[in-house]
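Q: Given only this backbone (370 positions), what sequence would you predict?
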């Protein structure tokens, strides 16, 4: 039925005649008969080249993909099924990638839909990365915003960046990879930061992260910080560092000095909404001076009230100041007492009492956030 009976113009005419907006291409592909048939053909092909219907299904799909599909649903179907097609028949798919997904000559909107849908629905895979290298570079080079085949509210360039970072931290590529060089030199700094932050967010949700992967990610971060030192205008690339802290996959001795430097290099880091008060309070046991300096940078970088400021004020400020006072470092003790006075002048009238409650043991680390 999919190969023969459905091969008529009625479904196509109904689909192409309706140009109502409001749905992305992938959602559109689920709601019209013509793209549903294409998805069926892809599913038939995914059963393997040895099936009796494979050749006919592939020929039927090729015919349909030749149509001028301005709505892009067929390209969303292609992107969604790209992994299956690559597994089943890479010899057929690979030479068709420039025409279907774009490459050195740029990307049409239809090609953008196929590429972005493929990247949105598939996890990173090294062989798939190689297949999509030229289209990814073309997307990064696009002078206009890339059309997302599936609207996940994530910039398609960020998704490319996440694949780049995955390739680097898994040891498959280095920062000198062609896609990595293009992404870190052309993509906006905000997008680069979002990609880095999202990978770190993924670390937070992982039960275990291999040491080698963690260490490569740490090395990549240091490379990007070195870039921002030389190019301060790219400070937005550092805004995702909160997730390194929240992930609990990095030692305090590694992340605390880097948090301090990120806050110094990128003042906007202090305006991020993520809450790390408890982590910062705990870090004062390891490095009271480093925790105090980082806290001061973050607090002084915030003028507005909000959840993040509330978190720092409640969970970090009294504990870090108290540990600074009790550290045995006279200079740190003096700085901490001065900071109490500064915050008191700004209206935090109960801070001195809270610090004293920490110092006399009334409040302990286990009480933070309760």
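A: Predicted residues:
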């Amino acid at each position: 039925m999919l190969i023969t009976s459905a091969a008529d113009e009625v479904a196509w005419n109904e689909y192409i005649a309706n140009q109502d907006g409001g749905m992305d291409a992938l959602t559109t592909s689920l709601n019209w008969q013509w793209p549903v048939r294409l998805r069926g053909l892809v599913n038939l092909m995914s059963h393997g080249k040895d099936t009796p219907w494979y050749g006919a299904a592939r020929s039927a799909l090729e015919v349909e993909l030749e149509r001028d599909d301005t709505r892009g649903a067929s390209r969303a179907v292609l992107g969604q099924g790209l992994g299956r097609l690559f597994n089943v028949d890479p010899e057929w798919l690979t030479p068709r990638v420039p025409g279907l997904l774009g490459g050195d000559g740029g990307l049409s909107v239809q090609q953008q839909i196929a590429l972005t849908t493929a990247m949105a629905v598939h996890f990173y895979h090294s062989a798939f990365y190689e297949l999509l290298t030229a289209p990814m570079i073309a997307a990064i080079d696009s002078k206009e915003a890339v059309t997302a085949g599936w609207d996940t509210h994530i910039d398609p360039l960020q998704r490319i960046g996440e694949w780049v970072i995955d390739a680097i931290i898994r040891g498959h590529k280095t920062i000198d990879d062609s896609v990595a060089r293009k992404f870190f030199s052309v993509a906006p700094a905000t997008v680069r930061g979002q990609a880095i932050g999202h990978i770190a967010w993924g670390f937070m949700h992982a039960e275990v992260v291999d040491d080698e992967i963690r260490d490569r990610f740490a090395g990549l971060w240091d490379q990007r910080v070195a870039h921002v030192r030389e190019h301060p205008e790219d400070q937005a690339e550092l805004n995702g560092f909160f997730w390194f802290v929240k992930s609990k996959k990095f030692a305090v001795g590694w992340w605390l000095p880097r948090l301090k430097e990120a806050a110094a290099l990128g003042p906007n880091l202090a305006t991020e909404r993520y809450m790390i008060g408890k982590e910062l309070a705990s870090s004062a046991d390891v490095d009271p001076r480093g925790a105090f300096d980082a806290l001061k940078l973050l607090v002084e970088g915030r003028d507005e009230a909000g959840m993040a400021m509330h978190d720092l004020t409640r969970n970090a400020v009294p504990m870090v100041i108290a540990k600074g006072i009790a550290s045995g470092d006279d200079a740190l003790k003096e700085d901490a007492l001065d900071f109490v006075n500064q915050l008191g002048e700004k209206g935090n009238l109960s801070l001195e009492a809270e610090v004293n409650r920490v110092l006399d043991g009334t409040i302990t680390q286990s009480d933070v956030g309760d």
